[in-house]
Amino acid sequence: MIYLDNAATSWPKPPQVLKAMTDVLERAGGNPGRSGHRLSVAAARVMYDTREAISQFFGISDPLRVIFTGNATHAINLVLRGILKPGDHVVTTSIEHNAVMRPLRSLEKQDIRLSLVHCAPDGSLDVKDLARVVNSGTRLVVVTHASNVVGTMLPIDEIGAIAHEVGALLMVDAAQTAGVIPISVSAMGIDLLAFTGHKELQGPPGIGGLIISDNVDVSQVEPLMRGGTGSRSESEEQPDDLPDKFESGTANLAGIAGLGAGLKWIADKGIDAIRDHLKKLNQTLIEGLSTLPNVKIYGTLDPERSVAIVSFTVTGKSVSEIGLRLDEDYGVLSRVGLHCAPAAHRTIGSFPEGTVRLAPGAFTTVSDIQEAIQAISKVVRS
Amino acid sequence: MTQYGVVLFHTTSSVMRAEKLLMKEVYSIKLIPTPRQFSSDCGIALRFDWNCCEQVKSMLDESRVEFDAIHFLGG
After folding, report:
1. Which residue in A116, A340, A363, A371 is the catalytic one?
2. Does the N-terminal peptide bond of residue A32 adopt cis geometry, omega within 30 degrees of 0?
3. Catalytic annotation present for A340
4. What topology is assigned to B4-74 in CATH?
5. pLDDT tops 90 at residue A172
6. What pLDDT score does A232 carry?
7. Cβ of A47 under 8 Å from any chain B Cβ?
8. d(Cα A298, Cα A312) in Å, to the nearest integer?
9. Domains of chain A and any CATH numbers
10. What confidence score (pLDDT) does residue A34 get?
11. Residue B39: its pLDDT value, please?
12. CB A288 within 8 A of CB A360
């Protein structure tokens, strides 16, 4: 079996991740922050150590500005629902995932003004187009770091400079880049970073987070949920302390431990080595697909400007048929259709049919890619 | 007999931060359930050797670890 659906979730997970998850439940299975006994304290330590590791990984000095969430969607909703008020202007791009588009379309009905900056058919963004739509009423600019459909990366530092010039905040959806592209929130001018643990950060599903930079006044951010935090229990009001303000309810301790082990695995391998490996796989994939008849490949076709996500269509064949043949006849696992990103497919010209998406991961080998290309070649010619 | 003090915090994350910071420098650091006489909170507090009180306070201040209060706990 050749798993090329790592943009949906990475698989397999490093064995250390699975071990960390069972270990924490066996040896530190208390509820972090709720009690003073040894199992609760041990759980709180695991949680804090992971929080600290995440803060270092994303280049911020204060671990308390790392908020654990269920996934990137949760983090994005926290920000959009927590910051935007009626009358505010928000800017995003035409290659966003529905994790961004759906909450924004919903907020539009509550008098939030939304501007969509159009990207080129290869997914790239001309920042001059962005500069034209931001204004003094813009509260937030929300962009993906890399398209989940074609892998194209957006110029985050330039986008941040434009947002900050008008006093807006920048939120980046790093679902497809965290763990593959080095990210420094402080150096790149990111105010809010939403990430998920279960993709290239190598963690399990159900854990993600939000990084809130020092530039953000947290008193101006409303929590998405309110409830028990283990702190200030005498009060029936939500505490203002970080991270508790945004972390009500019992945490996903096993997920947090798994994510911590994933970060360590990445540190041991070296993120640059992982990136180089994926660039090579991306290049092999693009070159291999380019030789096949009737195949159209989307995106920049440049591994330097994208993460390892390749979308293609075949003239005269439906994407679902290709996906099914690849899975059933050759054991090549892809994802076909619209990838929760209708706006992105409109932008690249593949709406409503969608594409076949191939996304290698850190465990994919060059021979996996060569084998997959042979399988696609047979399916295309059949 | 060692006399102890206790630092109370608003959040568990701050307790964890303080423990990591103080562990290498201050003797007799131990996390304990927050004593009822000081707070109705359900969290964890940090117990330390009362002789290190000034050091504890200055280290927490220097690293800007937020805490609620420091109390004398006794032996």
Report:
1. A340
2. no
3. yes
4. Alpha-Beta Plaits (3.30.70)
5. yes
6. 83
7. yes
8. 6
9. 2-10+271-381 (3.90.1150.10), 15-268 (3.40.640.10)
10. 83
11. 67
12. no
